[in-house]
Design goal:
By secondary structure, this protein is mostly helical. It has one domain. It has 2 helices and no strands.
Length: 43
């Protein structure tokens, strides 16, 4: 279980993904969350 948790953490927080413009999934999530906030601020 610990090995799986480490792998998931590395996959989501440390390993860049080419399909996400070389961002980690966590960076991509934060980037899109912030973009959504700034878009909503103008509505």
């Amino acid at each position: 279980r610990e090995i799986t948790e480490r792998w998931v953490s590395e996959y989501n927080c440390e390993r860049p993904h080419e399909s996400l413009n070389n961002m980690t999934p966590e960076e991509y999530r934060q980037h899109n969350h912030l973009a959504g906030i700034s878009k909503n601020a103008w509505n």
